[in-house]
Amino acid sequence: MDAYERITRNAAEVVTEEEIEALADDPDGKRAYVGYEPSGVLHIGHMLTANKLIDLQQAGFEVTVLLADVHAYLNDKGSFEEIRHTAERMRDQFIAYGLDESNTQFVLGSDFQLDDDYTLDLHSLELETTLARAERAMSEITSGDSVKVSQAVYPLMQALDIPYLGVDLAVGGMEQRKVHMLARDVLPSIDREPPTSLHTPLIADLGTGRGKMSSSEGVTISMEDSRDDIESKVNGAYCPPTADPEPTDDGEARENPVLQVFEYHVFPRFDTVVVERPAEYGGDLEYDAYDALEAELESGELHPADAKGALAEYLDRLIAPGREQLAE
Ligand code: IYR
């Protein structure tokens, strides 16, 4: 797989392809980052962007993980003290999850976002941005109906983080795309380059295949889950024998979250996936690419129950190191 393919595999969107091509061809000194609001425990959403960071490290990027403590504070996630404490634990969990420690720089937002220069640049961006635009940028990030002033400042700070961290590529889930588009529009007003970004897909709720998997509602997988928790969540998952399920009766789109987790979590981290089956049911199945597994689920060769059994096994392998870390 060449650098461009590794950078872009499993991405829902890149902005822009030409800019990513130029980065792929750049032999050294390129840096990518993801920012995370420190939250209770690492979950499958964090792990999806972390997989992309691992791809980027393999494609020659150095990686920065921003533990966005000030952003979490602005987004009403608790006292500053609590958020700081959580940020420290998250760092250890990311390393346990598989980020290459020698190549990953962890930065706290408060290490640079309270500096004079940053604050003045932030105020310049505030002058350039309407409240309506800031509010739109946040529509997929906050859930409350009324946007506080803090939440309008939030996307402008996220935009400013990109030049202040000196990164060439901003990575995030699709819910971050409007913030990155805002950054492309406003950063030139303070003589900064419009940033290049890459967005990972959103995975549907494990239980229903609707909407997106989140830590606040529905079924999700976290680093705190025991092997039994994982098995029971995966066994209860929505998994019709197709990658393209019918919408619900009320017209809501649905995905197959079991296949999505294989595609975006398991295959990027394991070269081969073995689905164990007793000899009387045909014996073990082995896949070295996601498409082959999807095709056999659709043809009926792979039964959803066997797919779920294998998924629980591989998710457990991904989560076990972080779970052990948490237990210390
Ligand atoms: N908005 C992110 C957190 C975040 C991301 C980046 I990239 C930043 O520079 C700052 C904050 C979230 O929703 O978790």
Automatic annotation (TrEMBL):
InterPro entries: aa-tRNA-synth_I_CS, aa-tRNA-synth_Ic, Rossmann-like_a/b/a_fold, Tyr-tRNA-ligase, Tyr-tRNA-ligase_3, Tyr-tRNA-ligase_arc/euk-type, Tyr-tRNA_synthase. Its EC number is 6.1.1.1. PROSITE patterns: AA_TRNA_LIGASE_I. It holds the Pfam family tRNA-synt_1b. A motif ('HIGH' region) lies at residues 38-46. Homodimer. The keyword Nucleotide-binding applies. It is an enzyme of class 6 (ligase). ATP binds at S215. The gene is tyrS. It catalyses: tRNA(Tyr) + L-tyrosine + ATP = L-tyrosyl-tRNA(Tyr) + AMP + diphosphate + H(+). Transmembrane segments: none annotated. Residues 193-220 are annotated as: Disordered. L-tyrosine binds at Y33, Y154, Q158, D161, Q176. One of its GO terms (cellular component) is cytoplasm. Its main location: cytoplasm. A motif ('KMSKS' region) lies at residues 212-216. Belongs to the class-I aminoacyl-tRNA synthetase family. TyrS type 3 subfamily. PANTHER family: TYROSINE--TRNA LIGASE, CYTOPLASMIC, TYROSINE-TRNA LIGASE. This is Tyrosine--tRNA ligase. GO terms for molecular function: ATP binding; tyrosine-tRNA ligase activity. One of its GO terms (biological process) is tyrosyl-tRNA aminoacylation. The keyword Cytoplasm applies. Catalyzes the attachment of tyrosine to tRNA(Tyr) in a two-step reaction: tyrosine is first activated by ATP to form Tyr-AMP and then transferred to the acceptor end of tRNA(Tyr).
